[in-house]
Amino acid sequence: MTTAVDSSVLLDVFTSDAAFGPRSRDAVRVCLAEGRLVACEVVWVEVASFFPSEAAAEGAMKTLGIEFDGIALRTALSAATAWKAYRARGGKRQRVAADFLIGAHALVQADRLLSRDRGFYRAYFTRLRVLDPSRT
């Protein structure tokens, strides 16, 4: 089982978020026990910006067991399809949002997504299995 992880869950863990940190940490452990935990480059960028150095960010991700898993061409195209649907529904953003790439990465290159943002991913990636640690 390969689980893609969203930035929100990792930041819960790394910042020891009082509201979501314990549940997110437990969910990460469960997903690791069931297989691989991966993050695409978008998640790595978002998470690494909270660390004092690249080495610190890489070390923290590796310590947690997060593998780097870059976005493939078919994933980028899937994100484009979701982006097009967003724009057709009246979405106002003028550039591709990171969440479209994260959702497409989980859909195409993993078996599920560990994220607290269920509504967005459920709306634009209807076949994506989303695990929400805040609801457990």
**CATH structural fold name:** Rossmann fold
The Rg value, from CA coordinates, equals: 14 Å
Adjacency order of strands in the biggest sheet: 3-2-1-4-5
Helix share bin: 55-70%
Intertermini distance: 19 Å
Under the CATH scheme, the architecture is 3-Layer(aba) Sandwich
* Secondary-structure element pattern, one letter each: EHHEHHEHHEHE
Number of domains: 1
Mean pLDDT: 93
Which CATH class is shown?
Alpha Beta
Broad shape: globular
Name of the CATH superfamily: 5'-nuclease
Low-confidence stretches: none
Assembly state (oligomeric): single chain
Structural class computed from helices and strand pairing: alpha/beta
Number of strands: 5
Describe this structure in words.
With 136 residues, this protein is of the alpha/beta class. It has one domain (2-135): Rossmann fold. It has 7 helices and 5 strands. It has helices at 7-14, 21-34, 41-48, 54-64, 73-88, 98-109, 118-124, and strands at 2-5, 36-39, 66-68, 112-114, 130-131. Strands 3-2-1-4-5 form a 5-stranded parallel sheet. β4 (112-114), α7 and β5 (130-131) form a beta-alpha-beta unit. The model has no long low-confidence stretch (mean pLDDT 93).
